[in-house]
Design a protein that fits this description.
The protein is of the alpha/beta class and 418 residues long. The protein folds into 3 domains: 171 residues, 3-Layer(aba) Sandwich (Molybdenum Cofactor Biosythetic Enzyme, Chain A), CATH 3.40.980; 78 residues, Alpha-Beta Plaits, CATH 3.30.70.2860; 155 residues, Maf protein. The chain is built from 16 helices and 17 strands. A 6-stranded mixed β-sheet has the order 2-1-3-8-7-6, sandwiched between helices. Strands 14-13-15-16-17 form a 5-stranded mixed β-sheet, with helices on both faces. A 4-stranded antiparallel β-sheet has the order 10-11-9-12, with helices on one face. It is globular, with a radius of gyration of 27 Å.
Length: 418
């Protein structure tokens, strides 16, 4: 048996100018991985006939499954459908089930007349298999040639996901003999990528050729991912578990988690497991830590609320930071964040608190307190601890780094003090 490869082609000028971020191909790649399909290439092209045609030619030489998203709307720049008709030598016909579906959407859901432009959504090449789109008006289309499949899907994410989940993913195992892809991921903190690589160099050299190790640094931490491909799942799982155990032992002093989850979810799971709650007092992050914590279902079990004390007057009036502290050491200081943490702990009546204050940039810094300087405090009813961080990136990245490090500081504080 041979590996089965896929290529993903995303279409639209908006992708090339950065107006729209391509989340479709990332989602598709993850779903393909789950069923043992390796993604060979991800290609973005504009709304240009020649470029799309060339991408189809090139990708069908590389892969057996070619997935295409975008360019299926009713406007003049949506050229994917007529191009595919020409590419596969078909002619356009009206698909009656699709026409009825589109008519029903306009008549019963949108409650407005369907114009001819909308009706053209029901036109498809006569040599494709139509994939009914329950979430929109543009159907998916499946073509076959020389043992390969080409699937054209709408670019609207929720429509693409529905078609992939209900039509494409279930179809692939019936057409191809796929293998199995296994991933194992852990997260480290407190050590740089190059030092980490030196620490585990013997482990990496000894890995079998079918197991790959990837370093994924982000927000001052490093994820390590093991990936393997094989055709015997049970043996592959056992082998990966054994290698992952060795890797965890090698990085044990710096290991944060052996799950591939974001820091805020890791902290949330820890709080929920222990039956504890947390609140936040945020200055420089403007509520970003609260956003992260509440972006996951079930967070109300452990996250109570936040005081976004962006202005210093709110630190004093709401969080009771003393006037003397503000005058003596200022808003970006150890004393200030400790007082913020203790106050929000009392206001929200939680078990733990996080407080942050810093200078995110690009301006506002001084020689004594430069851009990127951040104080983070964590506290419970018995004690408060604070740590100084110095970041050196863009405003957005400094905010993200502050949030991630604040959550990690809370994680270690809980493990030490609960």
């Amino acid at each position: 048996m041979e590996k089965v490869f896929a290529s993903i082609i995303t279409i639209g000028d908006e992708l090339l100018i950065g107006q729209v971020i391509d989340t479709n191909s990332a989602w598709m790649a993850r779903e393909l991985n789950k069923i043992g399909i390796l993604v060979k290439h991800r290609v973005a092209v504009g709304d240009v006939w020649e470029d799309i045609w060339q991408a189809l030619d090139e990708e069908c030489r590389q892969a057996s499954i070619i997935l295409i998203t975008g360019g299926l709307g009713p406007t003049a720049d949506d050229i994917t459908k007529p191009l595919l008709c020409a590419y596969f030598g078909g002619k356009m016909v009206v698909d009656l089930p699709t026409l009825n579906h589109v008519s029903n959407i306009f008549e019963h859901i949108l409650k407005r007349p369907m114009i001819e432009r909308n009706a053209k959504q029901a036109e498809v090449p006569d040599n494709c298999t139509v994939l009914k789109n329950e979430k929109g008006t543009a159907p998916g289309m499946l073509f076959k040639r020389d043992g390969k499949i080409f699937v054209s899907l709408p670019g609207v994410p929720h429509e693409m996901k529905w078609l992939m989940t209900n039509h494409v993913i279930p179809l692939i195992p019936n057409l191809f003999h796929t293998g199995f892809i296994e991933h194992r991921t852990l997260l480290t903190a407190g050590i740089g990528e190059s030092f980490l690589a030196e620490m585990i160099i013997d482990f990496e050299v000894a890995l079998p050729s079918h197991i790959k190790l990837a370093y994924l640094p982000n927000h001052g931490m490093v994820r390590l991912r093991l990936t393997a491909y094989g055709f015997h799942q049970t043996a592959l799982v056992h082998e990966m578990d054994a290698q992952f155990s060795l890797l965890k032992e090698k990085v044990k002093p710096f290991l944060v988690t052996d799950e591939d989850i974001p820091m805020e979810l890791l902290v949330g799971k820890l709080l929920k497991q222990k039956g504890r709650t947390v609140a936040t007092a945020e200055s420089c992050t403007g509520g970003y830590i609260a956003h992260l914590l509440t972006s996951h279902p079930g967070s109300s079990a452990y996250y109570m609320g936040s005081v976004v004390s962006y202005d210093n007057s709110i630190k004093q009036r709401v969080l009771q930071v003393s006037k003397e502290t503000m005058e003596l050491v200022g808003a970006v200081s150890e004393d200030t964040v400790k007082q913020m943490a203790r106050s929000v702990l009392e206001i929200m009546q939680t078990d733990y608190a996080i407080a942050v204050s810093g200078i995110m940039g690009p301006d506002g810094g001084t020689a004594e307190k430069p851009v990127g300087m951040v104080w983070i405090a964590v506290a419970n009813k018995q004690k408060a601890e604070a740590k100084l961080f110095s970041f050196r990136f863009s405003r957005t990245m400094n905010i993200e780094l502050t949030a991630t490090n604040a959550l990690n500081l809370l994680r270690t504080f809980i493990l030490t003090n609960d």
